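Pipeline run #58 for the internal structure catalog. This entry was flagged by the ingest filter as a single-chain record with no existing model, so it goes straight to prediction. Upstream metadata was stripped on purpose; only the residue string is passed forward. Reviewer on rotation: M.T. Logging verbosity set to normal.
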Amino acid sequence: MSEVPSQENRQFRLDRIVEVLELLSTSKEGVLLMDIVAALGIPTSTAYKLLAEMRRVRMIEATNGRGRQRLTKRMTELGTIADRNAQKFASVAKYFDQLADELAETVYLVQLRGRLISLVGFSQPIETTGLHPGFAFPIHASAAGKILWAYQETELKRSHIKFQDKTKVNPDDVRVALKDSLEKGYGVHDEEWDQGVLAISVPVFLGRKKPVMAVGIVAVKDRVLKKYSIEEVVEKLEKLGDKISPILEEA
């Protein structure tokens, strides 16, 4: 039976990973194993295991076939995502502002990257207090999570947290919810994470077979349903998606 790493060992490993990332960030051509051994002052065997684990999770990759290690594109882009999101949303913000004011609720844009769905930007209405869409969009308890993952061929192997009584966490129930979203063409969050909150999201394809982004509304449930049906909101979101797609394809 393998040993469970102690807290001290886990902390040591995390510290070394951060140091390797800092070292590799200084070189485009890549760094040799012995450079890492010398820089970090650790045994060759420890460095070798560390690099293997970092390659497994796609932090680093071998380059030039000469034993050099460099950061993957995924890692080099991490520090620039926030700025790129801001630029991307700025190019379409006026359309989100218009719909947010029309619906008197918050309208948001998200993007699927790997296994995570992240917030790109959002607009809140001027005349009412709009909700914040949040930064997490889980597959089982968010409108955007449902509609974006409904199109994915690979099932996401991840445990589901029960936020409210209405939250579905059974894998079979989640699959049914995803299938329902795919058939309808939109995802709905109906008090599954936050009580009194309704969210609706539609996919944005950007000329691809599968959606990589989604637009949505997060609203006070009773307030929005007094003025609009879910179908009416979906129609407005789809029109928003049509407006922004050509712009975002060039962004």
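catalog note: Strands lie at 60-63, 68-71, 106-113, 116-123, 187-190, 197-204, 213-220.
catalog note: Residues 33 and 68 are 7 Å apart (CA to CA).
status: ready for reviewer M.T.
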